Amino acid sequence: MGAEGDGIGRLPDGKAVYVPLSLPGEQVLARPVRPVGDGWLAVAETVEQPDEARVAPPCRHFGRCGGCVLQHWQDSAYRAWKAGLLSYALRQAGFAVPETLEFHPGLPGERRRIDFAVRRAGGRIILGLHAPRATEVIDLTDCLVLHPALMALMAPLRPLLGGLRAVKREASVVINLLDSGPDLLLRSDAPLSLDDRNALTAFARAHNLPRVSCAAPGETPETICLLRPATTTLSGVTVRPPPGAFLQATAEGEAAIVRAVLAGLPGRITAKTRIAELYAGCGTLTFALAQAVRVAAFEGDPDAIGALRQAVNQGGLAGRIEAAQRHLTRQPLSARELGAFTAVVLDPPHAGAAAQIAQVAAAGVPIVIYVSCNPATLGRDARTMHGAGYRLAGAAAIDQFLWSARLESVCVFRRG
Ligand SMILES: C[S@@+](CC[C@H](N)C(=O)[O-])C[C@H]1O[C@@H](n2cnc3c(N)ncnc32)[C@H](O)[C@@H]1O
Fold first, then answer.
1. Per-residue confidence of the chain (416 residues) as pLDDT tens digits?
2. Closest CA to 403 of 181, 220, 132
3. Where along the chain is S-adenosyl-L-methionine bound (predicted)?
4. For residue 282, which atom of ligand 1 is closest to its CA?
5. 246 CB near ligand 1 (under 6 Å)
6. Which among 146, 348, 407, 410 has most CB atoms closer than 10 A?
7. What is the ipTM of this complex?
8. Could you tell me if the CB of 19 is within 6 A of ligand 1?
9. What CATH superfamily classification does 1-53 receive?
């Protein structure tokens, strides 16, 4: 099974054949589609000999929608493979990894953040997710991983989007389920008309949305209506995330990440203990950490850092948390700056933190807690840590991207 969730076969010449929707141990009749990387991508025409771990996928869109690629695998086998993604990445980086890792399973109905793709095709609106490895959008009537409060918006969104002048050919709709309700951001390809604004406001009223915002692709969102503050609570602190803000994909995943991060903190904490938190977003980890230690939080996005600062000030936390905007790829914290900290917590985007981790390793910070959503870049960065003499002190796999090949994880590295 490959990192993308495809079954991998071997051709007589040793080349790999990647067969989506096949499982380990199966015999399938596969048609080659195109060369990819070191081999071929193929389509399974028929499953000649199914594995006993193959089960009926619960979703009617399975196979066409690229959101879930592993619904046809029995839970225990699927979960063992997911935990194995983390073990493999860490072993490849040179670390000794325990036989079984801490694993937090995900469940259907937990996803509280979604980015729907929208297309206008003839007279109708297609709303859904991309097909596997394609730009085609699969029209979804429902989505089993989605939180029911978000799924309930799918049917009424279609007529709303169909009536908007702002949706000419394509758009996207990001919805974050906040404590105060679903916060909707529409990114569309044409200017909003007055009627569009009225329709969006009426939609917010009818479906109890706190806020609706709109933006042209790549532009700063404009708030179209704010019926009440768009707020959420992070470790007991009220935060006002900007439209479309990054939030952990599930509340359950967030809780597991926070627990694993706190478990990695130094055993002895004094008034002088200071932690650097990199890629802090709106403060998911910042406020949890600040209950134990003083935190210097760094984040590149101006709106996210603005929300974090506002929450720090309103929560009376200025003595515990300093928040700074910083682009950590162009201007990583230097080894000298990092020397002031007992530990570094970092939660980089999918691309990882190559430039920043080199400085962390050079500084020899005693504890590094790495939160990752991509085992491949985690593995690359972990290799740098291994080369600098760190050992693995803890690792947890968190399945907040249920039935996909994506994996969230928290790894604790210690020096000496
Ligand atoms: C995976 S999110 C984690 C956010 C936060 N820790 C949380 O749990 O909600 C990654 C964060 O890194 C930020 N980011 C991405 N690239 C960055 C860069 N080059 N420099 C600084 N921050 C960056 C994003 O804006 C985002 O907030």
1. 998 999 999 999 999 999 999 999 999 999 999 999 889 999 999 999 999 999 999 999 999 999 999 999 999 999 999 999 999 999 999 999 998 899 999 999 999 999 999 999 988 999 999 999 899 999 999 999 999 999 999 999 999 999 999 999 999 999 999 999 999 999 999 999 999 999 999 999 999 999 999 998 788 999 999 999 999 999 999 999 999 999 999 999 999 999 999 999 998 888 889 999 999 999 999 999 999 999 999 999 999 999 999 999 999 999 999 999 999 999 999 999 999 999 999 999 999 999 999 999 999 999 999 999 999 999 999 999 999 999 999 999 999 999 999 999 999 999 97
2. 132
3. 248, 279, 299, 347
4. 9
5. yes
6. 410
7. 0.99
8. no
9. Nucleic acid-binding proteins (2.40.50.140)
CA–CA separation, 151 vs 132, rounded Å?
Answer: 21
Atom of ligand 1 nearest to the CA of 280: 6
- Kindly list the domain boundaries of the chain, sorted by start residue: 1-53, 79-107+247-415, 113-229
> Does CATH place domain 113-229 in 2.40.50.1070?
yes
162 ligand 1 Cβ < 6 A: no
Rg (C-alpha) for the chain, rounded Å, is 23
pTM: 0.96
The reply to whether 79-107+247-415 and 113-229 are identical in fold is no
C-beta separation of 97 from 87 below 8 A: yes
Nearest CA to ligand 1 atom 6: 280
179 is in an annotated binding site: no
What does the block give as tokens for 254? Answer: 């967030």
Q: Whose CA is nearest to atom 12 of ligand 1?
A: 279
Task: Give the Å distance between the CA of 370 and the centre of ligand 1.
Answer: 13
- Judge whether 299 is annotated as a binding position: yes
Q: Domain 79-107+247-415 belongs to what topology?
A: Rossmann fold (3.40.50)
Phi, then psi, of 394 in degrees rounded to 5: 180, 150
